[in-house]
Amino acid sequence: MYVLMPSQPIELQRVDAKQTSNARFSRPLMFVLLICLSSFYIWTLYLAAHPNVSLAYQTYYIDKKTQYWAKTNTDMLFPKAGVIVTSDKTPYLSRTGWAKEATKEGRVMLHSGGLFFNFAEFPKHPVKIQLLLSKSITEPVYLTLGDGNKIKLLPLEIEAIEAIIPVEAIDQRLPLQHWQIETPASLTVKQISIQELTS
After folding, report:
1. Is the C-alpha dihedral spanning 97, 99, 100, 102 positive or negative?
2. Which of 6, 34, 36, 105 is positioned for an S-S bond with 134, CB 3.0–4.6 A?
3. What is the pLDDT of residues 11-69, one digit of tens each?
């Protein structure tokens, strides 16, 4: 009498049963892992598109608008004294138009340079902007406000120009004031002052 032997050895059947058992648990585990990684990357992409950072950080690092980061001035508030010295590493000057390095006479602005700032308290009266230059200029100088209003800066002294800006011309809805100084020549600016005229 002959005994029929199974076609596969018994050990192979045990290994197949183990592999089937592992596959039953590993597939759902891989699926859960894939869902978790996908969720993480979708959330990362959302945060990259909608960063929750300070205005100063966004202006310098993300939008690349200013030359220096206002690390301690996260809202980009213009100094209380109302004056910025351009030879300092001031976070209010735009990257475009202004020289990267300042000289003893001030900072060179070639044709067009911007200012980025916010008012601590929005002005109720006209605002005076004054540029103190290292030498006099004969070409016209204009100031363009964020919403497109253009104002001519007039000579005050030999090395100073200024303009009075009506408060209605300043758009208070903007999250950041952007004032652009434009001239066909180049200027070497020592300081910029912005002050509200209360009387």
Report:
1. negative
2. 105
3. 555 555 566 666 677 788 888 899 999 999 999 998 888 888 888 888 888 888 988 88
